[in-house]
Automatic annotation (TrEMBL):
Protein name from the UniProt record: ROK family transcriptional regulator
Organism: Kribbella capetownensis
Lineage top rank: taxon: Bacteria
Family: Belongs to the ROK (NagC/XylR) family.
InterPro entries: ATPase_NBD (IPR043129), ROK (IPR000600), WH-like_DNA-bd_sf (IPR036388), WH_DNA-bd_sf (IPR036390)
């Protein structure tokens, strides 16, 4: 931030300096006053005065100086960011399950709760279950609503820059129930609604395979394909929040719909079992065929299951190729609950990909598993807290 002579009033300078110091401390461990001077370029008097302000606000704690028999003069003051000054929530509202992560201000998980929403019939019922899951997570950690500073919430629908859900598609309308407003009314903290794939991209760049990658695409590939896109480290939203939506796949030869890896594997496995002429170990399994069973059967050498995965890999490669051609990311990460199983597809995906584009992106599988969206939602909430820290009123435990 550049402060001109005309606007550089003492209160504003104090605020700017406080934000600078808080930014350094929130990303570091214990720091001395000397270390903060070196990291910020501020004077010793300014560092100590602003740290005193941050201590009184609750953002920073001062530690005992410790003993150093070799030191001359007064021991250095030692400061640390107060990661338990408040908490944030990362909420993933999926079509089948709601997951809530409660995290401290360094993003470390304090509590987790999850509930099925597969039998939910209305958006209002979905909101009620989200509320109940939040209450469960807070109660398990002994945290009350006033200690929560913000909640990031991911939904499987496009969300514009103002937090409004695009409802042009029937599936997207399932999430449109004044969700953010209702949760704020119930709990009192700001609710930051965002597309789930966008949050997956934030999570991957923060703590996943996409660390230090600025041009990144994350492909949620379970039941439905959805992508979150980052260009030069910035999320792409589009005019109505629809950047990265995959409805265009209906027009792509060899794909034809937005069905993801899990659904295609499951449907083709079920079709094979339904055909008495097909010889496969899938027929010996109890209950409905699942994608996991197809991957397991392929790992055991079942020819039918191997053929299904070859088809899935070729189809997924076409999806990755379209992202590579349209957005030219350095890396495409396959994410979601299907990610670990999808490792078996990588060799075939990469082989097909080289035939579809002359500039194929690198392809990796997320290590965040089914927490990818909720981790990104935590990061989204932390971004809000960092931006508004000096305006937030911290509540003691």
């Amino acid at each position: 931030m550049t402060v001109t002579q005309a606007t550089a009033t003492p209160p504003l300078l104090r605020r700017v300096n406080a934000g600078k110091l808080l930014g350094v401390l929130s990303n570091a461990g214990v720091m001395t006053g000397t270390g903060l001077i070196q990291a910020t370029g501020l004077t010793r008097a300014t560092v100590h005065a602003v740290c005193n302000d941050l201590i009184s606000m609750g953002w920073v704690v001062e530690l005992d100086p410790g003993r150093d028999d070799t030191a001359v003069g007064r021991p250095s003051r030692r400061f640390e960011f107060n990661s338990r000054a408040g908490y944030v929530l990362g909420i993933d509202i999926g079509d089948a399950k709601t997951t809530v992560l409660l995290a401290d201000l360094r993003g470390e998980t304090v509590a987790k709760a999850g509930r099925s929403v597969s039998d939910v019939k209305t958006p209002g019922e979905r909101t009620d279950i989200v509320h109940e899951t939040i209450v469960e997570a807070l109660a398990s950690a002994g945290v009350c609503d006033p200690q929560v500073l913000a909640a990031g919430v991911g939904v499987a629908a496009p969300v514009d820059r103002d937090g409004n859900i695009l409802v042009d598609d029937e599936f997207w309308r399932r999430f449109d129930a004044g969700l953010a407003k209702r949760l704020t009314e119930l709990h009192g903290w700001p609710v930051l609604l965002e597309n789930d794939a966008n949050l997956a991209a934030l999570g991957e760049q923060w703590r996943g395979e996409g660390r230090d990658v600025d041009d990144l695409a994350v492909l949620l590939a379970g039941e439905r394909f959805g992508s979150g896109l980052m260009d030069s480290g910035r999320l792409l939203h589009g005019s109505r929040g629809g950047a990265g939506e995959m409805v265009y796949l209906k027009l792509v030869e060899g794909v034809g719909d937005t069905h993801g890896i899990a659904r295609i594997a499951r449907d083709q496995g079920a079709a094979a079992v339904a055909d008495p002429a097909v010889d496969t170990i899938l027929r010996t399994l109890d209950g409905p065929i699942t994608a996991e069973q197809v991957f397991t059967a392929a790992g055991s050498g079942d020819e039918v299951a191997l053929g299904i995965l070859q088809h899935v890999a070729g189809r997924t490669a076409r999806v990755v190729a379209t992202l590579g051609i349209l957005f030219n990311p350095e890396l495409v990460v396959l994410g979601g609950a299907v990610a670990q199983a999808a490792k078996a597809l990588l060799p075939d995906i990469e082989r097909h990909l080289a035939t579809f584009t002359s500039t194929p992106p690198r392809v990796a599988v997320s290590s965040l598993g089914d927490a990818i969206v909720s981790v990104g939602a935590v990061r989204h909430a932390l971004n809000y807290v960092e931006q508004h820290a000096l305006d937030l009123n911290l509540k003691p435990a």
